[in-house]
Amino acid sequence: MTYSEFTPSCSLTQLRGLIGLHVHYNGARCQIIEVLEDEPALILQDCERHTIIQPDQLGEAHRRVPSTFTIPVLSGDKTELNPMFLDLNLLDV
Fold it and tell me: What is the band of 79 on the pLDDT scale with cuts at 50, 70, 90?
Protein backbone atom coordinates (compact mmCIF):
# COMPACT_ATOMS: atom_id res chain seq x y z
CA MET A 1 0.00 0.00 0.00
CA THR A 2 1.17 3.50 -0.73
CA TYR A 3 0.62 6.82 0.99
CA SER A 4 -1.63 8.05 -1.83
CA GLU A 5 -4.03 5.13 -1.28
CA PHE A 6 -4.87 6.49 2.17
CA THR A 7 -5.08 10.25 1.64
CA PRO A 8 -5.97 11.20 -1.92
CA SER A 9 -6.83 14.76 -0.82
CA CYS A 10 -3.43 15.44 0.80
CA SER A 11 -0.50 14.67 -1.49
CA LEU A 12 3.20 14.74 -0.71
CA THR A 13 3.48 17.74 -3.03
CA GLN A 14 0.93 19.57 -0.91
CA LEU A 15 2.76 18.59 2.28
CA ARG A 16 6.08 19.82 0.84
CA GLY A 17 4.33 23.12 0.08
CA LEU A 18 3.88 23.59 3.83
CA ILE A 19 7.64 23.81 4.44
CA GLY A 20 8.50 27.25 5.75
CA LEU A 21 5.03 28.01 7.11
CA HIS A 22 4.53 28.87 10.77
CA VAL A 23 2.02 27.00 12.92
CA HIS A 24 0.93 27.04 16.54
CA TYR A 25 1.76 23.75 18.26
CA ASN A 26 1.91 22.81 21.93
CA GLY A 27 1.68 26.43 23.08
CA ALA A 28 4.50 27.68 20.85
CA ARG A 29 5.03 29.19 17.43
CA CYS A 30 6.81 26.66 15.23
CA GLN A 31 8.01 26.49 11.66
CA ILE A 32 7.54 23.47 9.41
CA ILE A 33 11.09 22.60 8.34
CA GLU A 34 10.80 19.17 6.73
CA VAL A 35 8.44 16.46 5.47
CA LEU A 36 9.20 12.81 6.13
CA GLU A 37 7.78 10.99 3.13
CA ASP A 38 7.84 7.39 4.39
CA GLU A 39 5.57 7.88 7.41
CA PRO A 40 4.43 10.69 6.33
CA ALA A 41 5.11 13.30 9.00
CA LEU A 42 5.93 16.97 9.43
CA ILE A 43 8.99 18.15 11.34
CA LEU A 44 8.38 21.35 13.31
CA GLN A 45 11.05 23.58 14.83
CA ASP A 46 10.22 25.72 17.86
CA CYS A 47 10.68 29.40 16.96
CA GLU A 48 10.25 30.90 20.41
CA ARG A 49 11.73 29.71 23.60
CA HIS A 50 12.36 26.02 23.89
CA THR A 51 15.94 24.99 23.30
CA ILE A 52 17.69 21.78 24.10
CA ILE A 53 21.34 21.01 24.57
CA GLN A 54 22.50 18.91 21.63
CA PRO A 55 25.19 16.33 22.31
CA ASP A 56 27.87 15.59 19.75
CA GLN A 57 28.53 12.06 18.48
CA LEU A 58 30.50 11.32 21.65
CA GLY A 59 27.59 12.33 23.85
CA GLU A 60 29.13 15.60 25.04
CA ALA A 61 26.86 18.65 25.04
CA HIS A 62 28.32 21.69 23.31
CA ARG A 63 25.50 23.82 21.92
CA ARG A 64 21.89 24.81 22.29
CA VAL A 65 19.49 24.14 19.41
CA PRO A 66 15.75 24.72 18.94
CA SER A 67 13.44 21.88 19.92
CA THR A 68 11.92 19.88 17.10
CA PHE A 69 8.70 17.89 17.00
CA THR A 70 7.54 15.16 14.64
CA ILE A 71 3.85 15.33 13.79
CA PRO A 72 2.44 12.28 11.98
CA VAL A 73 0.06 13.12 9.16
CA LEU A 74 -1.89 9.86 9.36
CA SER A 75 -3.54 8.10 12.29
CA GLY A 76 -2.04 4.90 13.71
CA ASP A 77 -4.12 2.68 11.45
CA LYS A 78 -3.31 4.97 8.47
CA THR A 79 -6.95 5.30 7.44
CA GLU A 80 -7.48 8.97 8.38
CA LEU A 81 -5.60 12.14 9.26
CA ASN A 82 -3.95 12.26 12.67
CA PRO A 83 -5.66 14.57 15.21
CA MET A 84 -2.28 16.19 16.03
CA PHE A 85 -1.91 17.13 12.36
CA LEU A 86 -5.47 18.45 12.21
CA ASP A 87 -4.89 20.57 15.36
CA LEU A 88 -2.01 22.55 13.84
CA ASN A 89 -3.09 26.18 13.51
CA LEU A 90 -1.57 28.07 10.60
CA LEU A 91 -0.20 31.46 11.70
CA ASP A 92 0.18 34.71 9.80
CA VAL A 93 3.80 35.82 10.06
Answer: confident
